[in-house]
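Tokens as discussed.
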């Protein structure tokens, strides 16, 4: 099948960690790929690390600092060897990546500290190891009639150092700006039926490995889709679409058959981790539709994301983010003087932490802290508290939940809330809305979050 310009069509299939971690998953993947090939399209696969391996590698990098990573390294090695055996593949395929993983770990131990560059080099191995097995399995299953090619994503995507990016972000939350490359799409079409590459990883101008931020494989998939100007991007995961809320948190969640790019973006930004928000901003300019489907139930329909979406009077979905570190700062007598605010933001900058200002009054600020790209994870919050305490009257760190109503104007959402004829919890900490005015957020205590979600879902989702 070709598109209007007689270019062969590509579909991009992204398989997340929850979709590639068993033999059954892989049998389904082979079927999904074959179905596409039979329809005459070429298939580009973006492959994540096996389930939970990225977290293990993050821990491995930390343990390497004081040379205590051996046990975990063995565990990770074992896990991949077992996957090779489940797929009936020769485990020696893994050797080059296991060797380079060990070398990267040794570099951290020799260095004695963990830099974002060394962390990226270690963590990238999750995708390198898994995709090597995935490509070989697929090549064997599809046979010689089909050309299957493994590609190194670091040769496809080079990050751009954004002026306002700190060093952590440059290595751990890098950004690329791929544009359609018709010649490349044509070359690949002439040589291959299926290409398979890694999600989550890219390189920088110096050829070093960088990461695209946690959950970044969706972003990679959107990069491949933009590069090929694909006719469709399919996100294959462990649920059959985007739901009115996280179906693993609330059984009553309903599948959304179709939503607009903008609504999906709001949901993704607000915590619906089934899709990464950056993925949407990459494909939207090219109007590439996205479909979210369930690898474990491939025949079940999914959610289609396309189009503008029309104004709705109803809340369409509710997103939830839990265990968000939140700092409440009492600024004292001088309140929000530019000088105090500047000091506060300088501390965030020095610690290379991101933050989102959730609310402010004359004397206080409530900020959500983004720690996932910090090399030192949770410890850094204590550092932050100590530093902020030097300039604020009091500093309170809590782990809270943010609940966001998506799909109608915030004033409309607020009106619906006020109609709820049930007891709402006392602790609605605050609310805010974005400039797009299509969502309304609340900060609530983490302990109560799921009860509140249930209540809101019952009353607001129709
Ligand atoms: N609104 C939502 N609709 C569907 N899934 C959601 C939603 N919000 C959160 N999720 C969660 O997203 C998960 C899928 O994302 P993720 O675990 O990152 O999968 P993958 O490993 O395939 O990338 C689901 O299992 C579900 O718990
Ligand atoms: N493996 C990376 C990238 C990713 O997006 O994975 P997944 O597709 O399993 O969410 C992570 O865990 O962050």
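Sequence:
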């Amino acid at each position: 099948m070709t598109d209007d310009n007689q270019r062969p069509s590509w579909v991009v299939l992204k398989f997340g960690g929850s979709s590639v971690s068993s033999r059954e998953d892989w049998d389904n993947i082979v079927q999904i790929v074959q179905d596409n090939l039979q329809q005459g399209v070429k298939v580009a696969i973006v492959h994540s690390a096996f389930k939970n391996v990225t977290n293990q590698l993050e821990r491995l990098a930390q343990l390497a600092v004081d040379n205590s990573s051996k046990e975990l390294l063995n565990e990770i090695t074992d896990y991949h060897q077992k996957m090779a055996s489940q797929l009936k593949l020769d485990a020696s395929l893994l050797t080059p990546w296991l060797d380079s993983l060990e070398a990267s770990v040794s570099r951290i131990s020799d260095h004695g500290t963990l830099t974002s560059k060394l962390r990226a080099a270690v963590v990238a191995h999750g995708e390198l190891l898994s995709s090597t097995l995935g490509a070989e399995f697929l090549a064997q299953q599809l046979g010689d009639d089909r050309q299957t090619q493994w590609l190194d994503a670091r040769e496809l995507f080079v990050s751009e150092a954004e002026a306002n990016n700190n060093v952590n972000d440059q290595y751990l939350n890098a950004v690329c700006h791929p544009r359609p490359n018709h010649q490349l799409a044509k070359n690949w079409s002439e040589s291959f039926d299926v290409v398979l590459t890694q999600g989550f990883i890219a390189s920088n101008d110096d050829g070093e490995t960088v990461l695209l931020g946690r959950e970044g494989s969706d972003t990679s998939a959107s990069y491949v889709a933009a590069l090929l100007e694909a006719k469709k991007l399919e996100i294959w995961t462990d649920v059959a679409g985007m739901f009115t809320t996280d179906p693993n948190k609330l059984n009553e969640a309903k599948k959304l058959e179709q939503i607009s790019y903008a609504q999906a973006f709001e949901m993704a930004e607000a915590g619906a981790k089934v899709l990464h928000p950056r993925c949407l901003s990459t494909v939207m300019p090219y109007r590439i539709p996205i479909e979210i489907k369930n690898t474990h139930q491939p025949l079940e329909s999914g959610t289609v994301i396309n189009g503008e979406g029309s104004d709705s009077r109803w809340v369409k979905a509710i997103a939830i983010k839990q265990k968000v570190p939140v700092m409440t700062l009492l600024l004292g007598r001088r309140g929000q003087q530019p000088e105090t605010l500047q000091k506060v933001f300088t501390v965030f900058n020095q610690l290379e932490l991101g933050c989102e200002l959730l609310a402010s009054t004359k004397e206080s600020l409530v900020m959500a802290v983004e720690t996932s790209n910090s090399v030192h994870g949770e410890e850094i919050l204590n550092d932050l508290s100590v530093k902020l305490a030097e300039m604020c009257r009091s500093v309170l760190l809590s782990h809270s939940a943010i609940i966001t109503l998506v799909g109608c104007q915030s004033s409309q959402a607020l009106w619906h809330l006020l109609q709820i004829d049930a007891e709402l919890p006392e602790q609605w900490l605050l609310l805010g809305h974005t400039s797009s005015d299509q969502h309304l957020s609340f900060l609530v205590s983490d302990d109560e979050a799921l009860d509140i979600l249930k209540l809101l879902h019952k009353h607001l989702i129709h």
